[in-house]
Write a structure and sequence with these properties.
Layout (H helix, E strand, L loop, with lengths): L9 E7 L21 H18 L11 E3 L3 H11 L4 E2 L16 H7 L1 H10 L13 H23 L4 E7 L1 H12 L10 E6 L7 E7 L8
Parallel strand pairs: 1-4, 2-3, 2-4
Antiparallel strand pairs: 1-5, 5-6
């Protein structure tokens, strides 16, 4: 179990959703609302147990307040499984719109859109880069950052200076944008991975307590 954070400090636990019926592990799903698979649900039950063990538990559920999620079902349903409650939905936390690449694997993108694939590989981190028929990275980051501001405002309103732990369940690109914005870190972010940022009482800066925890998935098949 994690050591207790200093009195009045705040934790933001960040979870990536589990595997989907569309195989999120290999396919690029952004705004497409694919559902959790059976494997994804098992991953979330393991995530729930891991969080309960790490942060203390009540009937096997760690206590988080507030609870946030992307409105897409793969994140929303995961938040409910992990916490036992309905999350506050942050519309800005929808994954990036991959446009013509939606639902394809990297190999399929290379085969169908060879020129676009090359541009993607060379410029994917450039804020000006936009997916064909989709969203630009700059637009995406601006959107997520608006969501982060809304989320932090709600955390402060709910917790005040009492500290405590909030949780958000979202997508890889969204999580990377959140962690870079708040703590200047870039985790790998595998499916069902857990990450945790901490902010000391009276401070505005966040730091990473741990990133890319996937130990709870070792026995999931």
């Amino acid at each position: 179990m994690s050591a207790a954070a200093p009195l009045g400090s705040s934790r933001l636990v960040i979870v990536r959703h589990g595997e989907t019926t569309g195989n999120s592990s290999i396919r690029y799903y952004g705004r497409t609302d694919v559902a959790l698979s059976d494997l994804g649900r098992r991953q979330m039950l393991a995530t729930r147990a891991a969080l309960a063990q790490r942060f203390g538990h009540s009937l096997g559920i760690a206590r988080f307040d507030p609870i946030f999620a992307s409105p897409l079902s793969r994140a929303r349903d995961c938040a409910t499984i992990v916490t036992g409650a309905s999350p506050i939905l942050i519309d800005e936390f929808v994954e990036i719109d991959f446009g013509a690449f939606e639902g394809l694997t990297a190999d399929e993108i290379r085969e169908r859109y060879p020129d676009d694939f090359t541009q993607w590989q060379e410029h994917r981190l450039d804020p000006a880069y936009a997916y064909p028929q989709g969203e630009s990275r700059g637009e995406f980051l601006e959107r997520v950052h608006r969501g982060v501001t809304r989320m932090l405002t709600q955390i402060d309103q709910a917790r005040g200076d009492r500290g405590g732990s909030a949780i958000v369940v979202a997508h890889r690109g969204v999580i990377r944008a959140i962690t870079q914005r708040l703590a200047n870190v870039s985790p790998v972010i595998e499916l069902a991975s857990i990450h945790c940022l901490v902010r000391d009482s009276g401070q505005s800066d966040w730091r990473a307590e741990f990133l890319d925890d996937t130990q709870h998935l070792a026995d999931i098949d």
